[in-house]
Amino acid sequence: MGTETYIDSIEFKVQELLKEVRVDYSPALTKLVDDTVSAIKSAIDKIPEDLQVTADLAPGFVKDIGADKVEFKFKKPKSIEIGGSYSIRCVTKPDVNVDLLLRLPKECCHEKDYLNHRYHAKRCLYLCVIKKYLKSCPSIHRVEWSTLQNEARKPVLVVYPDAKLDDVPGLFIRIIPTATSLFNHSKLNLKRNNVRAVNTGDILQPTPKYNCSILEDMFLEESSKFVETTFSGWKELGEAVILLKVWARLRSSIHVHDCLNGFLISIIVAYLVVENKVNHDMKAMGIFRAALQFLATHPLFQDGLYFPPVDQNAISEEGWQGDEQHNSSPRVNLAFRMTSLAYPELEHEVESTLTCIGKCRAGGFEEIFATKIDHAAKYDYCIRLNLKGNSEVYALGFCLDDECWRVYEQDVHSLLNQGLSDRAKFIRVIWRNTHSEFNVENGLSSLDGEPLFVGILLSSVEKAFRVALMFRKFWGEKAELRRFQDGKIAESTVWKSEQWTRHLILKRIIEYLLVRHLSLLKKDIVQIVDQLDFSLLHGDKDPISYSGRLLGTYEELSTRLRSIEDIPLRISSVQPLNSAFRFTAVFPPEPHPLANKKVDVARLQNFTPFCVQSLELEGSGNWPMDEISIEKTKSVFLLKIAESLQNNWGMTCTATEKNVDVFMGGYSFRLRILHERGLSLVNRGSGHHQTKWVSSADRKLFVHSQHASMINGLQFVYPIFGPVVRLAKRWLASHLFSACLAEEAIELIVAYVFLRPLPFDVPCSQITGFLRFLRLLAEHDWAFSPLVVDINGDLTQNDQKEIDENFIQSRKAYEENPQNKSKAMFLATAYDKASEAWTSCSPNPLMPVAHDTSDGDPNGCMPAWSVWDGMPTSAELKRLVAYARSSANLLTNLISQNQTDPRGWECLFRTPLGLYDAVILLHADRLAYPRRLLFRSELDQGKHVAYGKASNLFHPFILPTDLKGSLNEIKSKLMVNFDPLRFYVRDVEKEFSDRLKLWYDYLGGDAIGITWEKSKKREREETEQEEKYPVELLRNVGELGTGFVRDVYLLKAPKLTN
């Protein structure tokens, strides 16, 4: 029953997809197409018979392809018939077009016009004549040039009808010339030379690509009839073609001129019928899978796909399979455009799709038919080469056997493949030449306007960042002779780099190769690698560079803690819980200069953050049973630990009732004890009656400990994971979502991108990983699907069932009583199957509350768990998803459109303040870390209701007058984890939480957004008082931040609701 339900679900989704993308062949559409075709025929009929046609109609084109003897007298086409997808009812939205096959008359061509591009020239001139007459037709809106599969020497006419249909906007008709029976097939044998300029000395070389280009036109009508006959009356076959088109179009790397197109897909499916790979009992998805299996086992690049088809016995007897490119048979390889550059990508996408069908939920429908695998999200490195006006591209001519643009693609691929070697899993080079303004009459020189695209999929981060062994001739001055650890002496290249700039090594290698071997200018090489690095810098350096010192200090402290012997129970383990230790903190703590005996810096930070350390003690049966007594006992242990650290190593420690802060190496470490009895109860707890005996402090520590351990392991497997998380956190904070999503939740969402990458590969660059994070946030169905993050791969089917039940229960509770706050975002892990740790909307003991004080800390510092306090409500999640979708689209465009202006990239982190009801602007020089501020916020709209000057009572840096004392005196003035923004947010929420909601950036923003909270309808007052209310309220909000608040603006007054 379960399997039947699963199959029915897939079939239902497929049918819904087909309804969405399949064109409705309505009477209106049929009439529009028929009328336009009739108008085209009428225009052609007006062309005078025997009109003299010369090269003057397209002098640039004729000259560029090197053709001669191109004059002819115009004759009417032998036939004009509709072909392509429209004829088999497989047109697939959004690209709605109709192919009109126009057979060239034999009288216009000489029997030897297959030589030296004469046929191509006459083909183009024939279309030039038709275009001239079509432009005067009143029922035709406009006529443009395009090309057949990006082949510049084979232009086609694109005709847009004047009438429009809402169901098919942008409908156009392509006029494609055919060459049925124009030439002798044997003259186009793939071993023959038909372009005399293709030679080596006096020896002519074969021109297989050129010959196939003509053969394609000769067999175009026949192959179209073959497809039409095969598909006639077979609905499922057409549906399978539509599914394959949707699948291919979503994958930009294979739906391109040198790989798959709609016509080739139709031919492949028709061949499946000929070879008895499909039958009438199969549904569309079955035929779809059969087509994928065919592509996986039939290497089109090597074996080709030949027309007319023959049975397998004939194939083996003729011996053409695998060697047809050199055979004299009058058959054409319809896959002749598929290149060695494209086929590995096709093979990989097919393999990935088949994996999705077998491993992903619901048969991988979402991954296969609803996930866009474009260049921006697929490749780790996206590069664009601006080659406009580069004469080196066509130095040998525009068109020989192949076109110069295709040859240049091969050259770039070969160069990078040799230079990057096993660093790259795939290198994709694509140069789309045709554009809407293309004017074939003026020649081919304008087809270099679009940049050449290079997409690189890394094999692994480790290989990408290592040193390369290459030859001196290839690397030039970069090569040097070096002795390696094993005693071997070899030529090598060395790319020196800081740890935090290792991702730039590949950029430097690629730039060096392209400049050295292709003579390109650096300004013409645009690589998408480091455009977002600015968001993670503190000053001019990435603070992640201090992580080594932080880890070293922690290791030393951990060793000292475990060696303490003058406490009743020894410390058995020490675990860091701060995100800095798992390399996911946006700004890891930097060592404070006061750790040095001599202070020689111009300015000293007034405070330092702390890192939480979880301590576990040896087991004992003498612990008290009630929670209060347990916590008091922990405090005594912490005091003894602090005393021992001070006595044995002279370390500075400060103690509060619940915490001990230890200062070491310029860092502050906060120690907390995880009670071993609480730990055992949590580990055993399969029912709520057991876990409720665990103290909230122990539960916090345990869950944080589990999370930290798992993320640490993930970071070890995927080195790029940390940078992606840091970008994600920075983005969320810059758009004022600090209160909406816990940093642990962010880490889990990013982890899902790495653990469940299908239909992609695991990202190996931070920009690619960040884009996929944004898309996941924007596209996941949060309302109806839990996000299950199985970090260690140990979730069983029973665990998955439990998670599903918990998710359904949470949604059911909300449906039964909307007053119950349901989890808007359900994140399930092995340690949290009910999504209680980081995403619960109800008051949660695992998360700090913004208005809590810090355990009685005399400095009034905030809780240690996280600077992120978030548990998103439905409204917050809706806003978050909208921002993620907008940013994902922007980032995709920045990557795809060759964006070099840094202001475009900065927009990803500039939040639109005009979308809030009110805005508070803070004094940037009074923020805890002024150098973390990305952009100073300004507002030029709304009503300015308050202004405040900066106070001298607080300053982020120690004032010069306070530096005159001794080192110990200066240390005594240092504040641990102090942040004025936290306290201001706490005060405002405590006072006005029922009337407004704050949106803020804990990482360094100087703006706070305000949205009005919906409240019950108040008694109506005078209009003047209603207008005065928000102004007075905002002034009170500003007064709470006197000396810290710069400006307060009212943008929209609150609305009364029932």
Could you describe the 3D structure shown?
The chain is α+β, with helices and mostly antiparallel strands and about 1050 residues long. It has six domains: about 25-190, Beta Polymerase, domain 2 (2-Layer Sandwich), CATH 3.30.460; about 235-310 and about 330-375, Poly(a)-polymerase, middle domain, CATH 1.10.1410; about 375-530, Alpha-Beta Plaits (2-Layer Sandwich); about 530-675, Beta Polymerase, domain 2; about 695-845 and about 865-910, no CATH class; about 910-1050, Alpha-Beta Plaits, CATH 3.30.70. About 40% of the residues lie in helices and about 15% in strands. The protein contains 32 helices and 31 strands. α15 (about 405-420) crosses α18 (about 505-520), α25 crosses α26 and α26 (about 765-780) crosses α28 (about 875-895). The two termini are about 50 Å apart.
In terms of topology, how is this protein built?
Elements: H1 2-21, H2 27-45, E1 52-53, H3 59-65, E2 72-73, E3 79-83, H4 84-87, E4 97-103, H5 118-134, E5 140-148, E6 151-161, E7 172-178, E8 199-200, E9 203-204, H6 208-231, H7 235-249, H8 262-274, H9 284-297, H10 300-303, E10 306-307, H11 312-318, E11 332-333, H12 343-359, H13 365-369, H14 375-378, E12 381-385, H15 404-420, E13 424-430, E14 452-458, H16 461-464, H17 472-475, E15 479-483, E16 489-493, H18 505-518, E17 525-528, H19 547-562, E18 571-576, E19 607-608, E20 610-617, H20 627-649, E21 652-655, E22 660-664, E23 667-674, H21 676-684, H22 688-691, H23 696-717, H24 721-734, H25 743-755, H26 766-779, E24 787-788, H27 797-816, E25 827-828, H28 874-896, H29 902-906, E26 918-922, E27 943-947, H30 967-972, E28 975-976, H31 980-992, E29 996-999, E30 1007-1012, H32 1023-1040, E31 1045-1050
Parallel strand pairs: 4-7, 19-28, 20-23, 24-25
Antiparallel strand pairs: 1-2, 3-4, 5-6, 6-7, 8-9, 10-11, 12-14, 12-17, 13-14, 15-16, 18-20, 21-22, 22-23, 26-30, 26-31, 27-31, 29-30
Main location: nucleus
Family: Belongs to the NRAP family.
Pfam families: Nrap, Nrap_D2, Nrap_D3, Nrap_D4, Nrap_D5, Nrap_D6
